[in-house]
Amino acid sequence: xxxxxxxxxxxxxxxxxxxxxxxxxxxxxxxxxxxxxxxxxxxxxxxxxxxxxxxxxxxxxxxxxxxxxxxxxxxxxxxxxxxxxxxxxxxxxxxxxxxxxxxxxxxxxxxxxxxxxxxxxxxxxxxxxxxxxxxxxxxxxxxxxxxxxxxx
Length: 152
Hints:
This protein is an alpha+beta fold. The protein is built from three helices and eight strands; from the N terminus they run H-E-E-E-E-E-E-H-H-E-E.
């Protein structure tokens, strides 16, 4: 286990957390919605929050808000998801790094760029499950695969 001095992390913590405070990220899902026989991407905006725990030597980023609109219908099995706006406040852990990654981050010339790349990669490799309304009025879980993510 790589251990960094508490002073190094205490110095790093405020600079890093302030840089990534309420970081807005836009994502495009792998699913598309149908509107008048044309396909449209389904986009969401995420707001993230990042914490440096110097005692546990962990950097963790959570998605704290998901906001977006399904512009048309999406077929899930025999069900049809209807157009709708989604706004969720949550605390979904998307990235947590410790040990060697943390040491690399603290020692990097541009830790924000390095962490940003890790965060976008984590989001693009994630499948979220959102509760959405169908044409029958029932709510179902919709697994949302992320096609790409980028900072606003």
